[in-house]
Amino acid sequence: xxxxxxxxxxxxxxxxxxxxxxxxxxxxxxxxxxxxxxxxxxxxxxxxxxxxxxxxxxxxxxxxxxxxxxxxxxxxxxxxxxxxxxxxxxxxxxxxxxxxxxxxxxxxxxxxxxxxxxxxxxxxxxxxxxxxxxxxxxxxxxxxxxxxxxxxxxxxxxxxxxxxxxxxxxxxxxxxxxxxxxxxxxxxxxxxxxxxxxxxxxxxxxxxxxxxxxxxxxxxxxxxxxxxxxxxxxxxxxxxxxxxxxxxxxxxxxxxxxxxxxxxxxxxxxxxxxxxxxxxxxxxxxxxxxxxxxxxxxxxxxxxxxxxxxxxxxxxxxxxxxxxxxxxxxxxxxxxxx
Length: 338
Ligand SMILES: [Zn+2]
Fold this sequence. Notes:
By secondary structure, the chain is α/β, with parallel strands linked by helices. It has a single domain (11-265), classed as Metal-dependent hydrolases (TIM Barrel). The chain is built from 12 helices and 12 strands. A 6-stranded parallel β-sheet has the order 5-6-7-8-9-10. A 3-stranded antiparallel β-sheet has the order 1-11-12. It has a 3-stranded parallel β-sheet with strand order 2-3-4. Helix 3 (82-88) links the parallel strand 5 (73-75) and strand 6 (94-97). The longest helix is centred in the middle third of the chain and has 15 residues, at 145-159. It is globular, with a radius of gyration of 19 Å. Bound molecules: zinc ion. Zinc ion binds at residues 13, 15, 39, 241, 243.
């Protein structure tokens, strides 16, 4: 097979920042995806109805004629009450919860994810049927942070059985058991957590462009996540977690966390699924699972990839240099122009 067509691809975890950076990166998502779930950790974060509207407007103004639905989200605050949530329910797909300090621009997040602090808001979300999206990590030791957060996921899943909870960018094989245990738990997985390990990040010369939160884990973790995705697990959606930073912020003595993958994720996914002879399971991962879990009807779009060598550029961007995942590497598949 030399061509593959993906129907209505969705990226259910996407950072496009704002201002100049947004104008540099949004096209890589809007051109090749039908929609994306836009993360709210801008500076300052998206926390009001006005924020949602102006951010959405900024995105739509930047994508020109592309058909692309920016599914909006709002940054969790324990001050959100039922009345407020009702007023934004139709404008957002999820409320995104960040424990304080765990990743880029999460400083205003929740200090402790316990029921005293977040219970009332989550209960209102459950009643209004607004899904909860979580960056599930503690501030503990770096390779243990996701595992240490599992009791919190479990507490929330048990306490709010009708609340759909999305465990974002799962990276640790110990999370899988929990995903299977509760019907209201779902997950996103990135391309980079399916493709690389900490040996790629740290095993030779330090690779700052592979540094992200949650940090990439062992080969065993990567393979366990691959197994789920390649075998078509219905509770897992693709979410790139593409998170651009300027090159100099990554190549720094105080390097930022985040991998910019948007321009190469489709090519990378086709290559991975083909290598394992599982191309038939790419379509649900890239679209159907998300449509069912979130009950959305994104605009129809067909994206074709052709078997043609694609040399990943070493940088993207016109005014800001941004280094992508797989920079300088050769991939087997290219996007056909749309
Ligand atoms: Zn993210």
